[in-house]
Design a protein that fits this description.
Radius of gyration: 22 Å
Order of helices and strands: EHEEHHHHEHEHEHEHEHEHHEHEEEHE
Number of strands: 14
Number of helices: 14
Oligomer: single chain
Largest sheet: 10 strands, mixed
Distance between the termini: 58 Å
Strand content: 15-25%
């Protein structure tokens, strides 16, 4: 009896597409007014007048494009673009779908300068661009590609609560912010005179009333005794959280506060790796973790950290970069917060919608943002890498 061999089945190609070029742009965003938080008043930093952005635009042979960004404040912008320019050639010819493998390849390309800080912040812009590209290929908003738990996230505003503005200006800013659909208000504290901090907090809480979510941020300016003393005074104001009361690396000090206070402790924005955040989680230092995807190496690393935070049953409130974080927060199992900043508006043609205290996902694929002509006009350095001809 003869049998007929089955017809061979088709096998998907190992490579679906290849990266053909990477364009890196260093863009300096001027701020309308010099910005001051407690670090300026304690003499540790100068007022901030601009933010340096690193944009990565990746194109493939198949005609797909992705855009991502990282940033630095006060210093570090040239270092980021320089490092990204050194490692970007290793992407040419690679399949853009293999994002985790490419992240590791880029880290090892510059391993002698470490796996945190400026090196991984440079890689972050590329990593975000690869995720943007992947979601666009799928025709999905990034949150939907990752698997969204919700279509909107709670949001709060920070950009109206800095210390260079009078308390009356801060109150006016808060009123306009709430009218725009943002749900919560955060103001800066950490002044050398803690009595002035308490006066400002009391004034804003009375202005907001009892029902509005309200947070404060000391930007790491207290020592342990001051943090404990002032935080206990702050408990009367029914705050959602007290942010960065201590040095970012003082895991034990934050843990002592978290154990002693009813008000939640939040920190993490200044850390630049998953490993550093893991120490906060291990020590029980936080109730609310505040990772920054561009600072820790991009979306690939954020997803690793989100899994650790979820396992520890922590809330998250990602720092800055709402254009990226609205997607990542929407994909987090526990109800998150996202920080609303209007500083980046001149860079993008699109706007995120805020309504009823929440920030809403758009149906645009990828991150859902495109660069303005003004952003390109603010470009101070540019590196283009493509295949040798």
């Amino acid at each position: 009896m003869t049998t007929t061999a089955p017809a061979p089945t088709s096998v998907a190609p190992a490579v679906l597409d290849r990266i053909s070029s990477v364009t890196l742009s260093s863009v300096t965003l001027p701020l309308p007014n010099p910005i001051s938080d407690a670090k300026v008043f304690t003499g540790r930093q100068r007022a901030m007048t601009e933010v340096a952005f690193l944009f990565a635009e990746i194109r493939t042979e198949g005609g797909f494009e992705g855009v991502g960004f990282s940033y630095s404040k006060r210093a570090g912008g040239p270092a980021e673009v320089a490092h990204a320019g050194e490692v970007a050639p290793d992407l040419i010819g690679e399949d853009p779908n293999d994002i985790a493998r490419l992240w590791t390849k880029l880290v090892w390309a510059g391993a002698s300068v470490g796996r945190s800080g400026a090196s991984t912040q440079a890689i972050a812009a590329i990593d975000v661009a690869l995720w943007d590209l992947k979601a666009k290929r799928a025709g999905l908003p990034l949150a939907k590609l990752l698997g969204a738990h919700r279509d909107s996230v709670r949001c709060y505003n920070t950009s109206g609560g800095f210390l260079h503005e009078t308390i009356e200006q801060v109150k006016d800013n808060a009123t306009r912010t709430l009218e725009s659909g943002v749900g919560g208000i955060k103001i800066k504290v950490g002044l050398p005179d803690s009595a002035e901090d308490l006066r400002r907090v009391r004034a804003v809480r009375e202005h907001l009333g009892d029902g509005v979510p309200f947070m404060v941020d000391a930007n790491q300016q207290w020592d342990r005794p001051t943090a404990m003393r002032v935080s206990r005074r702050l408990e009367e104001f029914d705050l959602v959280w007290i942010e960065e009361p201590l040095d970012a690396y003082d895991a034990e000090g934050h843990a002592q506060l978290a154990r002693s206070l009813d008000t939640a402790i939040a920190t993490g924005e200044m850390l630049t790796s998953v490993a550093e955040h893991r120490e906060l989680i291990r020590a029980g230092s936080v109730d609310i973790l505040q990772p920054d995807a561009p600072r820790i190496g991009g979306i690939t690393q954020f997803l690793k950290l989100a899994a650790l935070a979820d396992d520890a049953n922590l809330q998250i409130a990602p720092h800055f970069a709402m254009e990226i974080h609205v997607h990542l927060a929407a994909a987090y199992p526990h109800e998150p917060w996202v920080e609303h900043f209007d500083w980046l508006h001149p860079l993008f043609n699109e706007r995120l919608e805020t309504r009823d205290g929440r920030m809403h996902l758009s149906d645009r694929p990828g991150l859902g943002v495109t660069l303005t002509e003004q952003a390109r006009a603010w470009t101070v350095d540019r590196v283009h890498v493509d295949a040798p001809r």
